[in-house]
Amino acid sequence: MLTAIIIEDMPDALALLQNELKENHSDIDVIGTGQSVVEAAKILRKHTPDILFLDIMLGDGTGFDVLEIFPDLASKIIFVTASDEFALRAFKFAAIDYVLKPYSSEDLSMAIGRAKEQLQPNKERISILKETLAKPEAKPGKISLHTLDKIIIVSLNDIVRCEADSNNTKFHLQDGKRIFVTKTLKYFADMLQSYEFLRVHQSHLVNQQCIDAFIKTDGGYLLLKNKETIPVSVRKKSEVIEVLGRMHG
Questions:
Q1: pLDDT at residue 212 tops 70
Q2: pLDDT at residue number 119
Q3: Which phi and psi (to 5°) does residue 181 adopt?
Q4: Does the predicted TM-score (pTM) go above 0.90?
Q5: What is the pLDDT of residues 152-168, one digit of tens each?
Q6: Which of the two residues, 130 and 157, has the higher pLDDT score?
Q7: Which domains does the chain have, with CATH numbers?
Q8: Is the preceding omega at residue 102 within 30 degrees of 0, hence cis?
Q9: CA dihedral 76, 82, 83, 84 (to 10 degrees)
Q10: Could you give the C-alpha distances from 33 to 108, 219, 232, in angstroms and in order?
Q11: Contact at 8 Å (CB) between 27 and 75?
Q12: Residue 240 to residue 107: CA distance in whole angstroms
């Protein structure tokens, strides 16, 4: 049997999760529940569960406060969040799994499966999550990139461009390094477009800070500060010219 503790401040959501675990996950024994940071601290002082279901927003603080009280907690954590676009983006930036309320059986099963296999998110990824959640309007400083065998944390300013490679994305960094991530370019374009990244072509997403000029010959292309050239699609040309005009305006 695996043991679990649920920290969730909404009684309905708590009851729903308990029932779901009882009905569909008989190998998980819920040994305690709490509705606040204070209650979580009391329970976790006595028990270390295999899995901790942790709601991000609690009445008297946040799930992060719980993790700060127990910095060396050995439990696998399944973060739970209400569907708020900023929260979801923060989780994506940190490459940390979450389950959305109201829970679907399928999502919950997947999260439990991943929790059983996965290593804990390290402190740096939790701090990316925390900072991005705390300042939803600000440009996040860092992003976690999930490669096949590890997670690499990269500063947004170090990314020159992202390039589609069938259903994967290749990140090109300032120091010449490349990182291959098994997610589509659209996934990262949706995430990064609010933060000065420009989709200039079906296969290219470029950090605006790294653009030197738009060259109108040969169908139109970008010259980057590192002297690379990137094609601009016909559909994107007017948008690119407008954005660069604003930058240099």
A1: yes
A2: 61
A3: -120, 135
A4: no
A5: 999 999 999 999 999 99
A6: 157
A7: 2-134 (3.40.50.2300), 144-248 (2.40.50.1020)
A8: yes
A9: -110
A10: 17, 62, 54
A11: no
A12: 38
